[in-house]
Fold this protein.
Amino acid sequence: MTLFTDSIFLTNEIAGFEQCRNTRSTTSMAVICCLKGHIALELGGEMVQIGENDLFVRVPSQGFKPGPYEFSEDVQFIELSVHASIYDQLMLDHMRVEPRWWQKQQFLKANPVFHLNATSRQFCTAYFNLLVLQLEAKQTQYRQQILMAIARATTMEMLNYLDKMLQPDPEDARTSVDRSDYTFRRFTLLLHENPNQREVQWFAEKLEITPKYLSEICRARSGRSASDWIVEITVAHIKHYLKNTTLPIHDIAALMNFPNASFFCQYTKKHTGMTPNQVRREKID
């Protein structure tokens, strides 16, 4: 059984797995739950082994390219692939409520396979079955919205499971956090509240620190500079306006505080590899 829309791909058969890896591997997050047997596939130049009751997760930023793979004769699995934009938006939403969210992303990159307990396997198959029902009910009203909600819930369940696997963070266990941790949290909140600000200097002034120190904090806490974070949030909002509204380009440029539409187009092209119109035409529904 293989079912899909432009943004969601669902399968439990090898032919569907092959179709997904050849058409969606570079623009999606993939989640594979092995129910029986085993699967071996290449990720980052190394073979990853996925056994019974294991969950494999590949995040979009890993730059996956299709490589060798192998299925055991008795294999049973389910695979869900969602467009990178859905994953990115969930990560941005998650960032609002939990400062450790980037640790989970790093954990997934370093540990793409983890074992599920009985309860988590039940959740995994239950979400899969819900998606099957919705994908087969092609004429239902609000179908796309429900599909997105289930896909988001599935991803959040995975993040919830990671809470049980990650070692407790000594900083989170303290009654108070050190200044750099507190500053990074304030920075991430400012990013979401001010998506039209793109200068490290502006955020540093709000936090009453130097731009250099802000970037040092960001690198220490997340492995990325303040500029990297600003670009990511800016691009996420640009894509949101382009894909989810019919606003003219010059209006979006004004909302995002660009000096003019031309500069907005240059910025979009530089950081997405596409013009605003190309981003807008890229389907995610």
